[in-house]
Amino acid sequence: MNNDVKNKVSVGLVRVSSHTQDNNSSLQFQEEKILQYAKLHDLEILKVVGEVCSGSLETRDSIEEVKDLVRDNKIGVVVIWKSDRCFRSMLHFSRFYEFLKKHNVELRSVSEGLSSFSKNGSMLFGIMCSIAQYERELITERMMNGKITKVKNGDRKIGGKSVYGYKVEDGEIVVDKDSAEAVKFIFKKANELQKQNLTKTKKTQKLLKSLKRKNFQFNGHDFTNRNVKSILSNSFYVGEMKYSDIVTKHNHETLISKRLFNSVQYV
Fold first, then answer.
1. Looking at the domain 3-136, which fold is it?
2. 46: part of which helix (H) or strand (E)?
3. Residues of the chain with pLDDT > 90: what percent?
């Protein structure tokens, strides 16, 4: 599509949270205002996409439909009645706005008299996105505080992988019998090798061979030097949990004594 033509082709985007919305914010009201605006500003409205749903939802059928039109290079302008009518979350608004910017598509707000292609509109939409960034940082801070609180309480209910030797059951960290046996063997063998007059490399090679003879594996593969070092240095096995610069005791079953753990730290 010719860029000059595309830049005149628009789509209207309207939303209400319920069918019983007040007349001055109903779907019909918003659509009428957008069509009047388009006629006044010589814009061709391809269609008006409307939806009855919560404005707090980021993924909505109407939003995805508009994004598809943008990706297909079919429109050059998105017209809304009011920014906070389309989006109740500044975060969601900023992501949609950045998406339009990336594709060089203009955003116009009828009631606010804003255009993302004008200096004032770009500035005000930018301020909204800055507020969204602040909102994102607050959410991240709250999540971090929540993780730190869990660590201080000795709780490791996290979304990532569990420590080798443990597994997750019903959201709880419990000992995995087979891998726990491998962990115990590694510490025991490392302690024995410490007493031999060998280089660190030789000790590690002998330990890896012993693990292979015992048919111990690390997540379906033969152990590597890195796997062994990671296990030997992980104080989770003796009841400690670390997060950032915080070290605390956890409330899960331990696999190794503190004395054995300390004895192999220089292997």
1. Rossmann fold (3.40.50)
2. strand 44-52
3. 38
